Amino acid sequence: MNALLICSGGFDSVTLAYRLAKEHSLGALLTFDYGQRHKKEIDAARLCAEQLKVPHWVLDIGNIGQQLSGSALTDDIEVPHGYYTEQNMQLTVVPNRNAIMLTIAFGVAASRGFNTVALAVHGGDHFIYPDCRPDFIRLFGEMQSQALDGVAEVGLYAPYVHGDKTDIAKDAAQFGVPIANTWSCYEGGELHCGRCGTCVERIEAISLAGIMDPTPYQDNQFWKAASMSRVSQEQGT
């Protein structure tokens, strides 16, 4: 496998980068600037590429992102706090984001001789993000086989799609990911906020994996209450 990895600079995609590098399957990183509210994750992706000594391309699709309005990730909307199963997390959905990025990535892969596009979507994303679900990944791969028929053979690799973020955290420990160098927070402040959905999920997963988290957070306790609230909702109490 010679993979072109879509890398945001977040915990998930950087972990997959280190996993692929360890397996000698990482060809390059591809990062998208779609007009997200901060660029700290792009800087983290750039650092990852430098550390792994692979090419890194940043594609500016900001003009497209401007049309995908209504998300807290692209508009001046307050970032919701809590767990992803909460209804207010719908504000973090950027419509068709993965479908758009994957379409471009497959074209780049076919043009540059990569035989795989890799993506770090995982099971924890299924509830809130429809373009992270197993059926989407399967059908998108099939669609690209038709789109590139006779042009190139490029597969879609999403090893965490049936797992969860705890599996990713365990891989992070196994493959020596510099966790503090990854950026997940939606807020984009000086430190990870510790309260937005992706911070809560990140802290919880690392805790459940039983590994040390060197990342400084503004609030490293909020996730416990958010996790308890989620469990209570699931139990119907």
Keywords summarizing the entry:
237 residues; alpha/beta; Rossmann fold; five-stranded parallel beta sheet; 8 helices; 41% helix; 10% strand; ATP-binding; ligase; Rossmann-like_a/b/a_fold; nucleotide-binding; zinc ion binding
What do these coordinates show?
It holds the Pfam family QueC. Its cofactor is Zn(2+). Keywords: ATP-binding, Ligase, Metal-binding, Nucleotide-binding, Queuosine biosynthesis, Zinc. ATP binds at residues 7-17. This protein is of the alpha/beta class and 237 residues long. It has a single domain (3-235), classed as 3-Layer(aba) Sandwich (Rossmann fold), CATH 3.40.50. The chain contains 8 helices and 5 strands; from the N terminus they run βαβαβααβαβααα. It has helices at 11-22, 40-52, 62-67, 97-112, 134-147, 165-174, 197-209, 222-235; strands at residues 3-6, 26-33, 56-60, 116-118, 155-157. The chain has a 5-stranded parallel β-sheet, sandwiched between helices. Helix 1 packs across helix 6 (165-174) and helix 6 packs across helix 7 (197-209). The longest helix has 16 residues, at 97-112. The protein starts with a strand and ends with a helix. 43% of the residues are buried.
What's the SSE blueprint?
Blueprint: E1 3-6, H1 11-22, E2 26-33, H2 40-52, E3 56-60, H3 62-67, H4 97-112, E4 116-118, H5 134-147, E5 155-157, H6 165-174, H7 197-209, H8 222-235
Parallel strand pairs: 1-2, 1-4, 2-3, 4-5
In short:
Helix content is 41%, strand content 10%. By secondary structure, it is α/β, with parallel strands linked by helices.
Overall average pLDDT:
86
As a whole number of angstroms, the C-alpha radius of gyration is: 17 Å
CATH architecture: 3-Layer(aba) Sandwich
First-residue to last-residue Cα separation: 47 Å
Q: Please indicate the percent range of residues in DSSP E strands (runs of 2 or more).
A: 5-15%
CATH class: Alpha Beta
Q: Identify the CATH homologous superfamily.
A: HUPs
Q: Structural class, please?
A: alpha/beta
Strand order of the largest sheet: 3-2-1-4-5
Number of domains: 1
Number of helical elements: 8
Q: Indicate the CATH topology.
A: Rossmann fold
Which overall shape is indicated by the principal axes computed on the Cα atoms? globular
Largest sheet: 5 strands, parallel
User: Element order, helices and strands?
Assistant: EHEHEHHEHEHHH
List segments where confidence is low: pLDDT < 50 over at least 5 consecutive residues.
Answer: none
Catalytic activity: 7-carboxy-7-carbaguanine + NH4(+) + 2 ATP = 7-cyano-7-carbaguanine + 2 AMP + 2 diphosphate + 2 H(+)
Organism: Oceanisphaera avium
GO biological process, one term: tRNA queuosine(34) biosynthetic process
EC number: 6.3.4.20
